[in-house]
Design a protein that fits this description.
Elements (H helix, E strand, L loop, with lengths): L3 H15 L4 H38 L15 H11 L10 H16 L6 E3 L2 E2 L6 H22 L3 H32 L4 H6 L5 H4 L1 H15 L10 H4 L9 H26 L12 H23 L7 H33 L3 H35 L14
Antiparallel strand pairs: 1-2
């Protein structure tokens, strides 16, 4: 139990070496097996999450969730899988077949590839690269490309309008999300995910709560779920960018959305909740895996709770929130954190003083931003709703 993961890894490696496999090939096979295991775990988690979210939606919206297929409806996800696999594939007339068929695969790839660099425990890391944060940002951009390809290649005006909205929403919300990611990088002085996790004493959510808030809001917009579900918007766009998709092609988009939301929880856990860290996680790495997935699942539930409780916002409100609020305060917060970090490191202050000062700086920026935003909103309302004199033609004045 002291190190169950390493014991299993060494056992498989010794078997391969005993079969005459070279050590370099054995390491490669272990990496492939690890990648396959991560993908399998992701798909199993999605099956469970679909059921969990439906039951959660039922409780929040005062109705029953799945309750027919199996006890408490736990087999409903498997019934959906069978239905999706047996649906026929339909390609609309005039569609760009190549891009139309690649888009679902690219959507899945953009989510699964991010998990390749996650630190699951102290000794369980996929690709522990030095530019892990940059890798996540770059791979995540493929998801936006997949939506654009799906919308444009479908030869459907609803899908094309959804793809246009994706340009306005997803690309714009990338800006505050990336800026907020620079705060954990700055605090850890590294873009390596394992270093960022190990440097969190205490967690970054206590040191930089404003960055965590901005990253959470921006990530929810990147997922495209309510209140930012303008990409699908069934009341006006039928189903948005995947209107023309059916069968497993639609299923890949569906799975990618659920997995993307769970991936956002994993990113929040890594950058702001200490990742795998927890009591005895260093001594027993298997506990670190449970801590990591536990924090990820908690964030997933919080995001689901928010999206099931809030209505969809208008596109002008969505863009105003980003360009007039999130982007300015994310830049201000990054500059303030950078200056404060440098000054306090120069004076070699105690760790608790460092944490308290950083926390107060974040709260002060947030309060000031909310105050200014409220004043600007009231000023706009006074201008828009102020009574205007009605021009009366000469000689028509009331007597």
């Amino acid at each position: 139990m002291a190190d169950l993961i390493n014991l299993i890894e060494n056992w498989i490696k010794n078997i391969l070496l005993g079969w005459g496999v070279t050590e370099s090939l054995a390491v490669f096979i272990l990496q492939v097996l690890g990648s396959v295991l991560v993908v399998i775990v992701c798909f199993v988690i999605v099956i469970a999450l679909i059921w969990v979210e439906r039951k959660l939606a039922g409780r929040i919206q005062d109705r029953f969730g799945p309750n027919r297929a199996g006890p408490y409806g736990i087999f409903q996800s498997f019934a959906d899988i069978i239905k999706i696999f047996t649906k026929e594939y339909i390609t609309p007339v005039g569609a760009e077949k190549g891009l139309f068929n690649i888009a679902p695969v690219l959507a899945m790839f953009s989510v699964l590839a991010i998990w390749a660099v996650f630190p699951f425990a102290i000794n369980v890391v996929g690709g522990d690269i030095h530019v892990g944060v940059l890798y996540i940002v770059a791979i995540g951009a493929f998801g936006i490309l997949a939506i654009l390809m799906a919308g444009w290649s479908s030869n459907n005006r609803y899908a094309l309008l959804s793809a246009s909205r994706s340009v306005a929403m997803l690309i714009s919300y990338e800006i505050p999300m990336i800026i907020s990611l620079l705060v954990p990088v700055l605090l850890a002085h590294s873009m390596k995910l394992s270093v960022i996790v190990e440097a969190q004493m205490p967690w970054n959510i206590f040191v930089a709560p404003l960055a965590a808030l901005i990253f959470g809001i921006s990530s929810m917009a990147e997922v495209g779920k309510a209140p930012f579900d303008l990409l699908e918007a069934e009341s006006e766009l039928v189903a948005g960018y995947h209107t023309e998709y059916s069968g497993m092609k639609f299923g890949m988009f569906y799975v990618a959305e659920f997995l993307h939301q769970f991936t956002v929880g994993a990113l929040m856990a890594i950058f702001f909740l200490g990742g795998w860290t927890g009591p005895l996680a260093v001594r027993w790495p298997i506990l670190g895996v449970f801590y990591f997935y536990g924090k990820t699942f908690f964030i997933y539930l919080v995001i689901s709770w928010i999206r099931l409780s809030l209505p969809r916002i208008r596109i002008d409100e969505m863009l105003n929130l980003n360009w007039r609020f999130l982007i300015p305060i994310s830049f201000i917060n990054l500059i303030a954190v950078a200056i404060a970090d440098r000054v306090m490191l120069e004076f070699n202050l105690a760790r608790w003083i460092y944490v308290v000062v950083m926390f107060l700086i974040n709260i002060l920026i947030l309060v000031a931003a909310l105050t200014i935003a409220e004043k600007n909103e009231k000023a706009v309302e006074r201008v828009e709703f102020s009574p205007r004199p009605i021009a009366v033609p000469p000689g028509k004045e009331s007597k």
